[in-house]
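Hi P.,

Sorry for the delay on this. The queue was packed all week, but I finally got your sequence through. Input first:
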Amino acid sequence: MHLRYSLKTAVTGLRTNKSRSALTILGIVIGITAIILVMSVSSGARNLILGEINSLGSATIRIAPGKETEGPSALTNLFTDSLKVRDYEALQKKNNVPNLEKIMPVVLVPGGNTEFEGKTYNGQTFGSSEVMTEMMDLKIGQGNFFDETDVRQLANVVVIGDKVKNELFGESDALNQKIKIKGKNFRIVGIFEPTGSSIFFNVDDVAVIPYTTAQTYLTGTNYFNEMIVRATTEDLVDETVQNITATLRETHGIDNPENDDFSIVTQKDLAKRVGTVTAALAALLSAVAAISLIVGGVGIMNIMLVSVTERTREIGLRKALGATYRDILRQFLFESVLLTVIGGIVGIILGALFSFLTAKVLSISFGLNWQFALPISSVLLGIGVSAVVGLIFGLYPARKAARKSPIEALRFE
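Then the structure:
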C-alpha cells in the first residue's frame, strides 16, 4: 500500500467520524493555543520593555544604593542612604568622570499624594533635577519644567502629569495654581503631555519637584534613592562606569570592591536581565500549557483504541485483501498524526488571534505601546509538538490494530 493511499484511507476514516474527530483534537487545540498565546505575549512584553529601555539611550547608566541584589531585597536598597550629595557633586567634576554628559538624582517621596480644594489624587511624587526632561525625553504640554535656579533655591514648584491635572482641576486651568503635597503648598509651573506608562513610572500620574525641595521639606533625608547618568557616547559607557566606580569608592572610603555599597547598571546589562527573565517566564508558562497537550495526547490514544475496536472487521477485511502489518500500522498512525496536526494548525490560528486581541486590549486599557508579536519559533513549535504528540500517542493503538489476526477480526461482532 503506497503512502498516498495510506494517507487517503486515513482521511476517509476521519471524515467518517467527524464529531469524534473534532472532539479528539480539542485538547490539542487548547494546548497549542495556550503555548502560542504565552510565547506571543512574552515576546510582546520583552519588546515593550526593551523599547522603553532603549528610549533612554544606550549611553544611560543607573547608579543604585546598596549592593547589587535581585528579588525583594533589591527594593529595600532604594532607601539605603549610601548615595549622598557629596557623591553627586564628585561625579559632576570633569576630572573625576570626564565623559559624563548629564546626571539626574532621584528622591522618592512616600505618601506624596497631591491635594487641591478637598480633592486628593493618589499618584507618585518624587524629586529630581532640571535635566530630567532631557534625559527621559519627556515633553511639557503646558508651562515649563523647573530650572537650575529653582533647584538651588529650594523652590516650592511642581510639574504634574496630565491625569493629575484632569483629576484635580478638570477643564479648568491648572498653571500657577497651588496644590498640597504632604501638607505643603506647591505652585504648578508645568504639565506633562499625555504620555502613558513606561517601565519606570506612569508620566500621567506623577508630580515632580526639585530634589532639594523634596529632601528639605518632604522627606527630611540627605541621600538619593538613585542617580541616572548619561555618558557622552555609547562607546565610552564602560570607561564612564569605571570612573564612576572609582569616584564613589573614593568618596565612600572603600578599598575592597567586595565592600561596595552601591551598584551600577548599564542599559546593556538591563536589557540582558530583561531577556533572561522574560525567556524564563515564557518557558515556565509554556511548560504549564504543555500539560494540556499531554492530556490531549492521552485523549487521542483512548479514542484511537476505541476506534480500533469499532473497526475490527474493517481491519480484518483489509488484511484479507492483502494489507500488511506495515500498511495497517501506517494507516492508524496517519490518522493520529493528522488529528494532532489539524489541532495544531487550528491552535496556531486561535493563538495568533487571541494574542492580537490581547495586544490591542493592553494597548488601549493601559496606554502601553504594546505591539503584537508572533515569533516564527512558536508556529514551528506548535506544528512540531502536535505532530510528535500524535506520533507518540498514536503508536500503541496503531500497533494494536496492525497485530490483529484477519480471521479473528472478520469473526468479530
